[in-house]
Structures are given as structure tokens and as C-alpha cells.
Design brief:
The protein is mainly β. The protein is built from 1 helix and 11 strands, in the order E-E-E-E-E-E-H-E-E-E-E-E. Strands 1, 4, 5, 6, 7, 8, 9, 10 and 11 form a 9-stranded antiparallel β-sheet that branches. It has a two-stranded antiparallel ribbon with strand order 2-3.
Length: about 150
């Protein structure tokens, strides 16, 4: 008897969509319910430059699930500075859909995702001009999969 079978279907890498919410936007968590007037906000990302990684390890207090990754946004501009930079720090819950259509919600209101940002114009004309947002969260339960 085998634990798993060989998968022979499509298996596409990277992230298709990311949505974000402030950890304070939720009225309740199980089940997740937003406060009035609050909802997921869509982030337009560069799909070929995005990644979600999960690491599971044993800890004296039980299993710890570490979710990390990054996403890129092209071109330094005021729209990003005004709308996305306020999420930098431990303020966010992310809803990530990969290109295999699997949805992962990482972070919780009581354990938000750490988001940091780095921007560059690039050194050469052909280099990337834009932002890279990195995210990280350690949690005691696996991501909510929808």
C-alpha cells in the first residue's frame, strides 16, 4: 500500500492572485466575518514574480507552520505608496490563490502576517523598476484552505 499516488495532472507554479485585509478588519474569525464596510482588497501583482512557501516543523509546543514568500509590483508610483505601504509591518491577513486554483489564507487577526517592502529603480535601463513585498508568518495551525 502506498501513502500517496503519483500526480500526473497540471501543476503550475507561482501565485495567481493575492488579496489583503488588515487584521483589525474582522468581526470574528471562526468563521471569518468582516466588520461592516470591510472586505478583501485585491493586489495587482506580477504573476511570474511571486511565491508562497510553507515549512512545517516540530517544536516543543507542537507543530509550527511557517508561510513565507514575496510578490512584485512594477513601477514605483504613488498609488502603491498610498494603498499598500500602510500594510507594512504586522498588520495583514493574506488570501493567496496559486495558479493551481488552491486558496490559502495565512495569518489571523491575533497573529498577523509580517509584510516588508523594498523598492528599486534598477541600475540599468533594462532592470526592474518597482517593489518587492516579502511576507512571513509563523502559526500553530495550517493555513485555512478554501
Amino acid at each position: 500500500m502506498s501513502l500517496i499516488k503519483v500526480f500526473e495532472g497540471d501543476n503550475i507554479g507561482s501565485i495567481a492572485h493575492i488579496k489583503i485585509a488588515y487584521h483589525t478588519d474582522f468581526e470574528s474569525w471562526e468563521p471569518a466575518k468582516f466588520k461592516a464596510g470591510k472586505s478583501w482588497q485585491n493586489i495587482q501583482i506580477t504573476g511570474e514574480m511571486a511565491e508562497l512557501k510553507r515549512k512545517t516543523k516540530d517544536d516543543p509546543n507542537g507543530l509550527v507552520y511557517t508561510y513565507s514568500g514575496f510578490f512584485d509590483i512594477h513601477m514605483i508610483r504613488d498609488e502603491v505608496e498610498l494603498k499598500l505601504l500602510p500594510f507594512v509591518g504586522r498588520r495583514a491577513v493574506l488570501r493567496i490563490t496559486d495558479n493551481n486554483k488552491r486558496v490559502h489564507i495565512i495569518g489571523k487577526p491575533q497573529n498577523p502576517v509580517l509584510l516588508d517592502e523594498e523598492s528599486t529603480t534598477g541600475k540599468l535601463f533594462k532592470n526592474k523598476n518597482g517593489y518587492q513585498f516579502n511576507f512571513l508568518v509563523n502559526q500553530t495551525s495550517a493555513a485555512v484552505s478554501v
